[in-house]
Amino acid sequence: MESRPDSALELLQRFNTKRKKKSDKAFHALLLSQALYKNFIEQKDDSLIQIAIRYYKKTDNNLLLGKAYYYQGGIYLEKNNPQTASHCYLKALECLEKAPADSTLLTKVYTHLGICYGEQDLNQEAIDMYTEAVKAAKNDTIRIANTLKNLGDMYLQTIQFDSAEYYYLKALQQGNYNDSHQIALIHKALAGLYEEQERYQEANTYLSLALPKLKRPEEIFSSYSIKGEIMEYLNQNDSAIYYWKKSVMSPYIYTRTASYNHLYEINKKLKNWEDATLYADSFICYYDSIQGSYDRAELDSLMDNYKMNLYKSKLKIKHQQNTALLIISFIIFAATITCFYLWRDRCRQNKYIDLQHKLKQNRIESMLLHEQQNENNISNKISRQELQKLLFERFEICKAIFKSTVAHKMLKELQQASTQRTTHNHR
C-alpha cells in the first residue's frame, strides 16, 4: 500500500466481498478507500468508507475507526469542504486517543487539520495543529520537514517573516536530501519569502536550486512566474520576459493571466508597443474569463442560498403548522376531559338531588301514615307493614346518599388497606 498503491488498488478492486463476513467487508472498504486516496482518485461521496465507519463504531477497534475517519476527512477536503473535513479529523483524533500509539497516523491527522483550518483562515488554530504534528512525528524527519514547511507557510501568510524564515530553514535542516522534490519545495518557499522581503539575490539563488527538481506542472509554471518577477527586480528584463513567456504556457488560468499582465507591463516599460498591445489583449481576455467564472460562482452561490432559505422557510412553516396542530389537539383533549368531568359531576349531583327528593318524599309519606294512624286510633297490621316498608326505603336512600360522599370513599380505601395488612400479617 505504501510503496505500490496502484498495484494495491488493482488487487482490491478485483476482490469480491459479497459472501464475506461484515468484518472483512469493513476492512476491505477501509483499504480500498486508502488505495483510492493514495492514487489521487476522487470519490463521489463517502458511501464506501461509511461501511467501515458503521462497522468499527460497534467494535472497540479505535485505531481502525480513527483511520476510517481520517480517509473520510480526505474525501471532503478534496471536495473543498474543509468544515466537514475538520469535523472528521477531530473524530479521528478522539478515536486515536483511545487507541494504541500510531505516530504516523496521528501526524497525518494533525497536519490535515492544519490544512483545513488554514483554508478557513483560522491561522492560529492551523499553527497549533502543525505544532502538534511536529510533536507527534517524533523521529520521522520527512514528515517533520513537511510540517515545518507548512508552519513557515502559515507565518508567511500572516506576514511574520522572521518566524517563516526560521521554520523554512529548520525544515531544510530536517529535510531528506534523497528526496529532491521535498527539498525543492522548501527552496521554492524560501524564494517566495525572500522576494516578499525584497532580498532578490537570495530569492534567485533558492529558486534556481528549486526549478530543476520540481515535478508538478502547477509548481513549475508558478516558479517561472516568480522567477520572471525576480529577474525584473534585478533589472534583467530579457530574462524576465523569457520566464514569463514560459509561464504563459501554464494550464492554470490564474498563472497564465498574471504572466500576460507582467509581459504587458514590461513591454510597455520598454516601449515595445506592439507586443504590449498583444499581451494586453490576452490579459483582458483571460481576466474577463476569470471574472465570468467568479460571476457564475457567485450566481451559483446566490442560487444555493436562495434554495436554502426557501427550504428553511418551508421547514419553518411546517414546524409552525405542527406546533399549531399540537396546541389545538391539546386544547381539544383538555376540553374533552373537562367536559367529561363536568358531565360526571353533574350526573352525581343529579343523582344526589334525586335521592334527597326521594328521602324527603319518604319522610312526608311516613308522617302522613303516622297522622292517619293517630286520627283513626287504629294500629292494624297493614299500616305497620306500610310503615316498615317506608322505613326500609328511607334506609336504602340514606345508604345511597352516603355512598355518594367523599367520607364513604375514604372509609372504603381504609377498609381495603386494613384487609391487605391483615392478609400480609397472615402470610
CATH architecture of the domain at 1-138: Alpha Horseshoe
Q: Distance between termini?
A: 75 Å
Q: Over the alpha carbons, how many angstroms does the gyration radius reach?
A: 45 Å
Assign a percent range to the helix content: over 70%
Question: Superfamily at the CATH H level of the domain at 1-138?
Answer: Tetratricopeptide repeat domain
Low-pLDDT segments: none
> Which CATH class of the domain at 1-138?
Mainly Alpha
SS strand fraction: under 5%
Number of helices: 17
The secondary-structure element order is: HHHHHHHHHHHHHHHHH
Describe the structure.
This protein has 17 helices and no strands. The chain is elongated and about 150 Å long. The longest helix has 104 residues. Among the domains are: 138 residues, Alpha Horseshoe (Serine Threonine Protein Phosphatase 5, Tetratricopeptide repeat), CATH 1.25.40; 91 residues. The chain is mostly helical. It is 83% helix and 0% strand.
Task: Write the SSE topology.
Blueprint (H helix, E strand, L loop, with lengths): L4 H10 L7 H17 L8 H11 L4 H17 L3 H17 L4 H17 L3 H15 L3 H17 L3 H14 L5 H17 L3 H11 L6 H17 L3 H11 L5 H17 L3 H104 L4 H23 L2 H21 L1
Helix pairs in contact: 1-2, 2-3, 2-4, 3-4, 4-5, 4-6, 5-6, 6-7, 6-8, 7-8, 8-9, 8-10, 9-10, 10-11, 10-12, 11-12, 12-13, 12-14, 13-14, 14-15, 15-16
List keywords for this structure.
single chain; about 425 residues; mainly alpha; Serine Threonine Protein Phosphatase 5, Tetratricopeptide repeat; about 85% helix; elongated
